[in-house]
């Protein structure tokens, strides 16, 4: 009998570092800018998205590690066993590679868009008459907003605003050397643009300012100047202990965050730099900002490519062919002849956004607000849109005398200021507003409407994987259900009472609620699948999520693989699990789908020897979601919805267009096979359009599944 080899599942080689894995994800975002199957303006947009993603990563993840490094905290990370400094070195190495790749793409795309009469040019490349117009624009619109900041014994090094572009200026007069910094304020648009003979030209505002910089320093000679941008720590601790009013604490925190420690400096490269000047200036900046050389990034193009969004907003009106074909989310056909509540009384409703319209979710709150039978509305809010119809409906409900309880999560990162304002507005309207649980973020997506009809109380519950945000629902893929299931409604009631009052976590019948319960139940379900496989040989787990970092979950998935269970993981972003390790994870397949829409739904399925278990959740399998957040995982009990979600998972696993699979060396490769092209997001769009068309024509339904019908159409093409 062959002795079974035992593997140490704590071996650091069996894990990928969380931060490096995230940088690999952002590289996949940049790959979309390189993909010539995407329309040209969308490729520019992916460059902008990559920059925005990286800014947040630097402000939060890198900032936290730098804090540990500066405080000489040498605690090892749980998976790779790296110190904070080792992680910072690995991040810098990978990030410098990504930075070079991003700006190489930018220069290539500049040439591509020029073929379509779109030109990103420098000030001195514009004709003289246009330069004169820019001069007028500078003195009328920009000059009054500029504040040159001299640095000397009487004027200390200034506080440089986070993510703002600045000009560093070397000056001289009569042999005396001086330095100054000029912040460039964020105006409405990043560009001065004009059209001429069917050609569209864009000049960065900072380039215009640089060309007239001498007007700020009369009597001095400009020896040299360069553009730079500082990124600051935005991951400051919120001191909740002893707080009488979390609203006030958050407002103070927002002020403090503006002056966080610097974590990165970016320099715009120029051909005419005097290297001796620039080297000394950079050393000076690094010292003043408390940064190391690894925190310094040179960029071969304009700083802050998020500004490309301003150009795209202008160009899409003239070049609609260079954007994705418009897609309007489809309003579900079954709701065209009835309302959400009447249909929910008959059966559960399933919504797959952005393919299905978000409108039924909005109507769920709006109709409840206007229905005289409504007694109460309870809802959690994490991120909402600027002119949220959900907020408006909740206000209406309160003003009409209904009991409205809203949990507004004030600690939703980078939405704190918005949520503070929403909390105040809802309170003024008469809503009972709560801010969550101490030291926990409430990330759950749940709403409950309570009505009284015919002498009985009826409860209607919406549960989802994504935010109650009508804007992001257009480009985030999410799922949700509306149900009147009594067991789920009872759990929802207990959940809201837990949030608003003083009690321990209730014993739920259907919902799994973190902290801890989601992780613990998921690990139990994996163990059940292992035992079912040993007994029946048909073990199979499928999970779709944004990120996987929980070591406890990864270890259990390794155990499942070792037992022979087939594991398919669809993970858009961070994945600390390493597939394909002999004896450890050879039965695990990991793919990442990055495309037009941001994959955001979380789906967890277990074959369970044919007695399948299927859950949707607001939570990823991340350490923070498991222990520092209030999250909900909920079962899919409706047989038809279960079947539809399984077909959706099947499409994801067959994607050979936008899917990349993870290799044992932690690199990703596009799925390549000889099968007909399958673009999962394109298929879901087509499905929604087909069903919308079918509803309009009242065509008889085929007995085939929607995926089989769609495959037949594709094969005919």
TrEMBL record:
The keyword Ribosomal protein does not apply. It is an enzyme of class 2 (transferase). CDD domains: PLDc_PaPPK1_C1_like, PLDc_PaPPK1_C2_like. Residues 131-308 form the Polyphosphate kinase middle domain. The active site is at residue 443. Residues 339-504, 511-681 form the Polyphosphate kinase C-terminal domain. An intermediate of this reaction is the autophosphorylated ppk in which a phosphate is covalently linked to a histidine residue through a N-P bond. GO terms for biological process: polyphosphate biosynthetic process. ATP binds at residues 53, 476, 572, 600. InterPro entries: PP_kinase, PP_kinase_C_1, PP_kinase_middle, PP_kinase_middle_dom_sf, PPK_C_dom2, PPK_N_dom, PPK_N_dom_sf. Its EC number is 2.7.4.1. Its cofactor is Mg(2+). Mg(2+) binds at residues 383, 413. Residues 15-120 form the Polyphosphate kinase N-terminal domain. Keywords: ATP-binding, Kinase, Magnesium, Metal-binding, Nucleotide-binding, Phosphoprotein, Transferase. It catalyses: [phosphate](n) + ATP = [phosphate](n+1) + ADP. Gene3D superfamilies: Endonuclease Chain A, Polyphosphate kinase middle domain, Polyphosphate kinase N-terminal domain. Catalyzes the reversible transfer of the terminal phosphate of ATP to form a long-chain polyphosphate (polyP). HAMAP family: Polyphosphate_kinase. Belongs to the polyphosphate kinase 1 (PPK1) family. This is Polyphosphate kinase. The gene is ppk.
């Amino acid at each position: 009998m062959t002795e079974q080899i035992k593997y140490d599942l704590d071996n650091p080689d069996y894990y990928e570092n969380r931060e490096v894995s995230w940088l690999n994800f952002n590289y996949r975002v940049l790959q979309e800018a390189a993909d010539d199957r995407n329309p040209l303006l969308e490729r520019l947009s992916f460059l902008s998205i990559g920059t925005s993603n990286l800014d947040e990563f630097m402000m939060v993840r890198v900032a936290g590690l730098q804090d540990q490094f500066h405080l000489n905290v040498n605690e090892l990370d749980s998976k790779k066993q790296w110190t904070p400094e080792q992680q910072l070195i690995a991040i810098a190495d990978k990030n410098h590679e990504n930075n070079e790749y991003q700006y190489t793409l930018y220069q290539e795309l500049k040439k591509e868009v020029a073929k379509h009469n779109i030109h990103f040019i420098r000030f001195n490349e514009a004709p003289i008459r246009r330069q004169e117009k820019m001069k007028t624009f500078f003195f009328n619109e920009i000059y009054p907003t500029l504040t040159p900041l001299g640095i000397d014994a009487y004027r200390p090094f200034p506080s440089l605003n986070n993510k703002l572009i600045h000009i560093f200026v070397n000056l001289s007069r009569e042999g005396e050397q001086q330095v100054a910094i000029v912040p460039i304020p964020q105006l409405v648009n990043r560009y001065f643009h004009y059209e001429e003979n069917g050609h569209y030209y864009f000049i960065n505002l900072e380039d215009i300012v640089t060309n007239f910089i001498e007007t700020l320093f009369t009597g001095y000679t400009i020896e040299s100047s360069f553009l730079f941008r500082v990124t600051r720590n935005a991951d400051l601790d919120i001191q909740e202990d002893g707080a009488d009013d979390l609203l006030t604490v958050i407002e103070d925190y927002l002020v403090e965050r503006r002056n966080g420690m610097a974590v990165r400096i970016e320099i715009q490269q120029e051909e005419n730099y005097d290297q001796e000047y620039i080297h000394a200036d950079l050393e000076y900046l690094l010292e003043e900002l408390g940064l190391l050389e690894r925190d310094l990034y040179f960029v071969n193009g304009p700083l802050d490519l998020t500004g490309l969004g301003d150009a795209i907003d202008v160009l899409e009106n003239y070049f609609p062919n260079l954007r994705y074909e418009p897609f309007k989310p489809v309003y579900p056909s079954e709701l065209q002849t009835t309302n959400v509540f009447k249909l929910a009384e008959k059966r559960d409703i399933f919504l797959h956004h952005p393919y299905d319209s978000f409108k039924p979710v909005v109507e769920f709150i709006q109709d409840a607000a206007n229905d005289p039978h409504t007694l109460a509305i309870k809802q959690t809010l994490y991120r909402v849109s600027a002119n949220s119809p959900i907020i408006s409906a909740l206000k209406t409900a309160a003003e009409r005398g209904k009991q409205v309880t809203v949990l507004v999560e004030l600690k939703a990162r980078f939405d704190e200021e918005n949520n503070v304002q929403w909390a105040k507005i809802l309170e003024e309207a008469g809503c009972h507003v709560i801010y969550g649980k101490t030291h926990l973020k409430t990330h759950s997506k749940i709403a409950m409407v309570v009505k009284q009809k015919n002498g009985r109380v009826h409860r209607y519950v919406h549960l989802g994987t994504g935010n109650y945000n009508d804007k992001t629902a257009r480009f985030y893929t999410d799922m949700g259900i509306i149900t009147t299931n009594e067991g789920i409604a009872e759990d929802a009631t207990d959940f809201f009472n837990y949030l608003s009052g003083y009690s321990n976590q209730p014993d739920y019948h259907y919902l799994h609620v973190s902290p801890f319960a989601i992780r613990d139940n998921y690990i139990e379900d994996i163990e059940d699948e292992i035992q079912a496989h040993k007994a029946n040989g048909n073990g199979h787990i499928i999970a779709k999520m944004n990120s996987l970092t929980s070591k406890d979950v990864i270890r259990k998935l390794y155990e499942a693989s070792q037992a022979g269970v087939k594991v398919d993981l669809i993970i858009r972003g961070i994945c600390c699990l390493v597939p394909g390790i002999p004896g450890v994870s050879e039965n695990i397949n990991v793919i990442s789908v990055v495309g037009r829409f941001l994959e955001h739904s979380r789906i967890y399925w277990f074959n369970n020897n044919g007695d399948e278990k299927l859950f949707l959740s607001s939570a990823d399998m991340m350490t923070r979601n498991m222990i520092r957040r209030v999250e909900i995982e909920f079962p899919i009990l409706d047989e038809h919805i279960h079947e539809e979600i399984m077909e959706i998972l099947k499409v994801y696993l067959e994607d050979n267009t936008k899917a990349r699979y993870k290799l044992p060396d932690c690199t990703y490769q596009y799925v390549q096979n000889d099968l007909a092209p399958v673009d999962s997001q394109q298929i879901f769009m087509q499905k929604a359009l087909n069903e919308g068309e079918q509803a309009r024509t009242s065509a008889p339904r085929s007995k085939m599944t929607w995926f089989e019908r769609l495959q037949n159409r594709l094969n005919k093409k």
